[in-house]
Amino acid sequence: xxxxxxxxHAPRIDRLGDAALIVTFSDELDLRANAxxxxxxxxxxxxxxxxxxxxxxxxxxxxxxxPFDPDRCAEEALRGLLxxxxxxxxxxxxxxxxxxxxxxxxxxxxxxxxxxxxxARTGMSEDQVVALHAGVEYRVLVLGFVPGFPYLxxxxxxxxxxxxxxxxxxxxAGSVAIAGRQTGIYPFETPGGWHLIGRTExxxxxxxxxHPALLAPGDRVRFVPR
Length: 226
Known about the structure:
Helix content: 10-25%
Number of helices: 4
CATH topology of the largest domain: Cyclophilin
Largest sheet: 7 strands, mixed, barrel
CATH architecture of the largest domain: Beta Barrel
Strand content: 25-35%
Shape: elongated
């Protein structure tokens, strides 16, 4: 999948408390910035054993959290290391595509109770909403919220809707939802404020698997209507 151009500014390095730095690649949802964040975090992990006091870097949507022990690792030295890592990873191509997952979805009806509202708010028919949502290959930007929940981007612009004004107390497991420029899948029954447009039987989290999460950052997802 071809990623759109990254935001046109250099990464920003800020302090986050006394024991962490955060590198921000973009202030917007940007696939190239996300790929750069994942590359940088991977490179930091390679270098971590040789840097006393450096902890595991955590990539986000378009940032990397870099925790460290200030008693063992000087902030100035760490900033120098980050400059090297950013220079090296910035020259790389976009991160290699992860695994492509095709996930079957039942759209609308009891499985996707918000589909009629989404259609009305976007000025499209329900079938057009489904075709638009399922016609895009998404990137797993990050996992979070609950174990295995994938934040997938980027949804087509016409489907960019704010979260529901009133979150649901219970969202069924497997619910496929949209909010803003992202879509996601709820691995468990949990509260949630995204618009529910469908449901899948795919098991997003299973502790019996070697890797419990079905999806990983960098993987790709295509939804297949049933």
